[in-house]
Amino acid sequence: xxxxxxxxxxxxxxxxxxxxxxxxxxxxxxxxxxxxxxxxxxxxxxxxxxxxxxxxxxxxxxxxxxxxxxxxxxxxxxxxxxxxxxxxxxxxxxxxxxxxxxxxxxxxxxxxxxxxxxxxxxxxxxxxxxxxxxxxxxxxxxxxxxxxxxxxxxxxxxxxxxxxxxxxxxxxxxxxxxxxxxxxxxxxxxxxxxxxxxxxxxxxxxxxxxxxxxxxxxxxxxxxxxxxxxxxxxx
Length: 235
Description:
The protein is mostly helical. The protein is built from 8 helices and 2 strands, in the order ββαααααααα.
């Protein structure tokens, strides 16, 4: 995993913990190049194919669970309102099916990137190991993250994304800015979280913070790309 350095010394080939060192100005290009390498490896590496197939299955399962859960919640809510406010029972019961379906579809679509981000976080270590083994074999073995620490980080990420997306949900429904806001919010969160998960394999927390501050825009745009892919159910 490339890391930044303010000024590369002549002949210096490695940065923190044996990582290839690159200049700050070159970081966006490095991120795009790394993404292209990862995509190419997905098309040829059986290890990543297995992860891709499992992720696709979990994505579809998650989407179905979201849809069913929201639809059930809407129907239960309509029944509760009908009991406590009978005067609304007639038209609400009449529109219950259509309203429930539309609400479930919209909410599932909007929250899908959040939930699948939580699922994907469990595969990041395996993907990082496979990519480093192919493209950076000269690097020493990464420390990795303990299972409990990875689980806690994934849960924290999921809770933060759920809270932020629920707060932003009404604005997601505004025509013209909804999709852009979804990409911006989830891109900001995903770019930071996925960077931290990978960076902690080889950087200290202090070094990681320095790199993140110097390359906010590059990591944000990377997160936007991840969020855009997450809007496609099988990705």
